[in-house]
Structures are given as C-alpha cells and as structure tokens.
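Page 37, top half.
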Amino acid sequence: MTARAPAVPAAVARLIGVARTFAEAARLPPSAADLLAVIVEEWSANIVEHGGAAPESLIVLRLDRSGDAVDISFSDAGMAFDPRTAEERGPHLERGGGAGIALIRFWSRIADYSRRRGRNRLQLVLEVG
C-alpha cells in the first residue's frame, strides 16, 4: 500500500489512517496494528514538525507485509536526518514529545536510511508475528 500526503500537519492523521487501513487488510494482530500506527505517527510528525520540507512537497509512505514483518518506507523532501545516528535527548517535559525516535528504535528495526535526489528515504521493519 502506498500513500502520498503534503508535508503539512494534516498529513499525520491521514498517514495514521492509512496505517490502520493497511493493518486491517493485512490482518495484523491488534498489538502490531497499534505499534504500526504509533511508528507512522511519530515519523510523519517528525517530518512535518522538524523536517523543514516545503508544504507542497509530498511525504510518501509505503507499507508491505512480508511474512511475519511489515516493511515501512518513508520518503520526504525535508532536511537530511539519519535516525540511526541521531542523539536521543529524552522527553521534552515542557512542550511534550521528544520520545519518538526512541520509540521507533525500540519497536522497529531501522533497515536503511539514504538521501538521494533531495529526498530522505527511510526503511523500517516491524516484526508482527
């Protein structure tokens, strides 16, 4: 399943909805469906809030079930950001948030990150079975 959304705040809810639709179609267990939704929410929110992508640029989300795993791919035109090397600064108690990268690292495997033709490309794997 592939979805595209402009890099604006409404993209986050749209992409969460896509993740939920995919989870149902792929018959993921409820706990895996919830993890997928949180991973999609955290990464897409990071793109929108911190990535600096032009609002008219697109976030592309691809989801594919492969046996006991879900392959999650994001592409965006924001600033280069490799989550494998990003420093964890812990939660931001005053404004909320700040735990997204840690959650993504804990609940999924970062399979690859690259930057090509002005776009970030992130591949995650979520074990579901």
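Page 37, bottom half:
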Amino acid sequence: MCVGAYGGTTCETTWSAEARIVNKTEDNGYSYSNSQSGHHVAAYGDEILIGNGGSMRLPMILKRSPSTGTWDAVWNLSASYVWIDGTRDYTNLGASVSLSGDRAILGAPEVLSSNINSPGFAMIFERLAGSTATWSFITKLVADDLDSSSYSSQHAFGYDVAISGEYAMVSTGRSNSPASVYIFERDSTTTSWPQKAKLSSPVSSATNDNYGASIALDGNYAVVGASYDADLGDYSGAAYIYGRSASGTWEQVIKLTAYDGTLHDYFGYSVSLSGNYALIGSYGDDESGSSSGSAYVYARSIATGEWMLDAKLTASNGAANDQFGYSVAISGSRAFVGASNKASSFGQSGVAYLFEREQQSGTWKETAKLTDFEGSYNQFAAHVAISSAYAIGASQLTDYMSNNGHVYVIANFTHVAL
C-alpha cells in the first residue's frame, strides 16, 4: 500500500507520464464538433489514434519507438480526404475515432459546405500489409436510409464510431429525434464493408434518449449508451448490450440501468467494452456529492452468457461536481475513468483514475490517479483511452488560446499484477 499524492490509498508511482503530445497541424479553417461524448482518442497496443478535437486539425496515428521511447506520428489524414467533389466540405472528419490493429475508422458527423447538405459519413483506413506507416483509404461508410434530405444541424451519422476486427459501428447520436446505430461487416471476398444491421432505441417514441451518443464494439458484442433514458427518472440513462448470433444477426442481449439510478445520472453517457467486461459511465451520479459521478463494471458469465454487475467504481477522493465517469475506457482487467471537472493539485481541472481487478478476490481497486501535471488545460480526461500497456488522457483536444490539440500518454513499466 502507498499513499497517493491526491489523498487516499493509491500507488501512483507504478504509473508515470511518458509524453505530452500536441497536435500542431494546420487548422483547416472551421472549428466545430458535435461529438462531445464520442471517442476523440483511441489506443491499440503501442499506437494512438488522435482525432481532430473539433478544430479541424488533421487526425494522426502515433507509434512508440521501442528504442527511444518517443511517440512519433506515422500517419496523418491527407488533406485530399477533407474535400468533396472539389469543394471544401468542412466535414470535421475525425470528430470520432476508433483503432483496432491494422484498421482505423474516423467519423464525420457534420458536412458544413455551403454547397452540400449531408447527414455525415465515416471512413475506414487500413495499414498496408508488412508496413508500419503506410495507411490506405479503404471505404466510405454511409447509412442506406440517410441522404441529403436527412441533413440536420444536430448530431448526424458519424457522431461516434467503433471498429473491431471485421465489424464497424457508426451512430447518429441525435438528441432531438430518434437515433440509430449502424453496423457494417467486412466482406472478405471483395474487401467492401456493406451495412448489415441498423439498431434503434427499443423505447417507443424515444425522441430524446441520446441513444448512440457513445458506442463500443469488441468481437461479437456491442454496447450502446442512451444517457437520456428515463426509466428511473429524467436523464437517468441506460445502456444496451447487443450480441451477434450464429446466423449473423445482431440482437439485443440486455438493457442495463443502474441498480441505484435516479434522475440526472446520465448513465450511459460514456461506454467501453473489452472481452467479457463492459464499463458504463454515469457522470451525474451523486454517490460522493451532487454530480460526483460513478462508473459501473458489468461482467459476462462464461457459463450462462448473462451480463451481471461486477462493481460500482467511484473515486477515492470524489467530491461534488467532479463528473467522474464523463469518459471511460476498459482493456482486459484495467478500467480507466475520467473525471473531467475534478480540481487538480497542479491547477486547472481533470483527473483520470485507473482501476485494476484483483484476480483472487475479484474486486476492482483504484491503483492510480493521473493528471495534467503542468496544470495547463481544463477538462483533462474528458476523453480517455487504454491499451494493454498505455493509458491516454486528453482534454477536449482544443486549447482555446493556441488552438492546439493535446494528449498525455501514461506508461506502465513497473506494475505487478494484483
């Protein structure tokens, strides 16, 4: 046991900040994003995909050098992909991102050209076989039932995205009309990605349940957040888990609501999925004071296939208005939760908490608190990502003084499995 720098019994010394990354690519002109709860950063192994942060900067993939430990950009989005029919489209491509091995998906929920009305789209890129840095455009995903007449200034197709192996998901995330989530599957014979399923809120006339504001995908399972769901009171929130059957259809497995949920909890505002664990953020929960926040871990039983509550996570030093659970990420038995409004000892706001599951007892223990140690930015950990060895904390990815996006990379070298 060791005493943490922010109070409570934690072991921050096992994790250290390895890098601060600033996206200084040229601003493409228009600063706009509707994907507040979409995934702006993604991690896989020793690579990070950084979105544009709402400032039209070029999304990029960074890879850690095993010899120097530095993080170098190995790919950035070519400017040729941010134009449509020769016209500057202001798509905000990269407002949501996801990374899985040699495949990446980027969402463009807004197309704001004066000439073009579009409900949005997503693009899949793939690494060239045998290459480290060569990524190629594979396909553009669009919903088969949305066209220019479906255009809205509200959240559109590409609000959040997820990719895992041969499957990709894209949500519309609309808050003022029924929203949907679309699933695409790679055709191994043609390498195209046809649409295979459309998921919609099962709640009758759910015009404002925020279905699809945050989505996650891993293997044959998917989770969809609906943080405005009113089952337990206005904006109490819910999350849906879907499974792919042997016949290839995607079916609802369970609707999750917090066992202690109440109004304005926003359960499902952030979601993540890894193997047999689902992590659901509830930043409005009042566990440690008004809007202190919490996150819920659900585990899938290997024997029965049922999803059951495994733990409710809260910060050891939680306080009112921290908004713990504003962002979440899970990888194996590690959960990473952002409290974007938590006052930091280094100034400004935002702390990210790492939890790890003890193998013998099955309990989840807080093992680190991570922050912007320079105290330069507000809302650190508004977006988080985690892989097998690295945790990434990012603010809203826009510094309004310099207009540069930034993330912090946290490296784990010395931790011993609990």
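Margin note: The first strand starts at residue 15 and ends at 23.
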